[in-house]
Design a protein that fits this description.
Strands 13-12-11-7-10-9-8-14 form an 8-stranded mixed sheet. A 6-stranded parallel sheet has the order 3-2-1-4-5-6, sandwiched between helices. It starts with a strand and ends in a 17-residue tail after the last strand. It contains 11 helices and 14 strands. With 357 residues, it is of the alpha/beta class. Helix 8 packs across helix 11.
């Protein structure tokens, strides 16, 4: 299958490596910054590839079967719609979009054109997360009571200065939509996906040069009776501290941690069918960065989905759920009251000027 990448920024090497690991034919790479394109090509010894600053020209000339979109979040939906219209299957970096309407448009277009839409929540493929998910599906927790998703990281002024759109409502959102959405996705997935109501606070505590939040906390009520807690911050001194996912059921307790929830730190079940120390050793990974090792299996699944005419493991609907919850958190924090889901509408752009008064 022919493959093209749009966006040659921070996460792009993970996409390139995943494409190479899955024997995709890399047809072209694109970024509005030609230096970013040449740098990425050079990193992978791929100077011979089609190098573009116009993704429409790349799609038109290279005819890729799969396009990965790793641009600023605010451009994801528009680019995805262009690629889908051209008959391309798409892998969209999180989030799928920054509004309910745009997410719905992408999902609908993929369905109408008969192409696969995958959203890149690659942590679902972590060895640790896959094993935890198996325990959920086997009912080992019994009734799920509550879960927590904590992302306690640091992002500096230099980080936000590298790309002017970072932290903007138009193109990015804040720490919940950007840094925390992977763990939010996992919490939803493990606790049953359907959130009934959310109550939240967000603030901009340490980064006056961005528009959106650098801190957020939310309480979730799920339709199945479980509860969830989300804490996200990029204000942790002096560097990233942890990302953790905790699940508490009537018959089980699990905690995942590490750089990108790649390690099982607690594993306790009433029936005791496996040894906790063995589980912790067997399902631990040590990735070099917060992106983890999930891109390669995500690409493998996408290729299989295309060949077999099925939905990808993480399809557009799954990607929309995490984004929609963040939008509900934003609305709850702005209005000072609980918000019920699903949302009929909503966008990060609704909150322009939120912290400026």
């Amino acid at each position: 299958m022919r493959y093209a990448l749009i966006g040659c920024g921070r996460v792009s090497p993970n996409h390139m490596q995943a494409a190479i690991n899955n024997d995709l034919e890399i047809a072209g790479i694109c970024d509005v910054n030609p230096e970013a394109v040449s740098k990425l090509a050079g990193k992978f010894g791929a100077d011979h590839l089609g190098q573009y600053t116009d993704y429409k020209a790349m799609i038109r000339n290279e005819h890729p079967d799969i396009v990965a979109i790793a641009t600023e979040s605010g451009k994801h939906a528009a680019i995805a719609l262009e690629c889908i219209e051209a008959g391309c299957n798409v892998i969209i970096e999180k989030p799928i979009a920054l509004s309910v309407a745009d997410a719905d448009a992408v999902i609908r277009a993929g369905r109408e054109k008969g192409v696969a839409v995958c959203v890149c929540h690659q942590n679902r493929f972590n060895r640790s997360i896959q094993y935890i998910r198996r325990a959920v599906e086997e009912g080992r927790f019994g009734r799920m009571l509550h879960g927590t998703a904590n992302v306690r990281w640091n992002r500096s002024k230099d980080y936000y200065g590298q790309v002017p759109s970072r932290g903007s409502w138009e193109m990015d959102g804040g720490c919940l939509m950007n840094q925390c959405i992977h763990n939010i996705d996992l919490l939803l997935w493990m606790l049953g996906d359907e959130v009934e109501e959310v109550m939240a606070y967000t603030d901009r505590l340490m980064h006056p040069y961005i528009e959106a939040e650098d801190f957020g906390m939310a309480m979730l009520k799920f339709k199945n009776g479980a509860y969830g807690l989300i804490e996200g911050s990029v204000n942790i001194y002096p560097e990233n501290l942890e990302e953790t996912l905790c699940l508490f059921g009537e018959k089980g307790t699990v905690k995942a941690g590490g750089r990108s929830v790649n390690v099982i730190e607690e594993w306790k079940f009433a029936e005791g069918s496996d040894d906790p120390d063995s589980v912790k050793a067997l399902y631990a990974e040590d990735p070099p960065n917060v992106y983890g090792f999930g891109h390669t299996p995500l690409y493998k699944d996408m290729i299989d989905a295309i060949r077999n005419g099925r939905k990808p493991y993480i399809d557009g609907e799954a990607g929309k759920q995490a984004m929609e919850l963040v939008l509900a958190i934003y609305r709850s924090a702005a209005e000072g009251c609980p918000v019920r889901l699903p949302l009929k509408e909503g966008s990060t752009r609704d909150h322009i000027g939120r912290f400026d008064s």
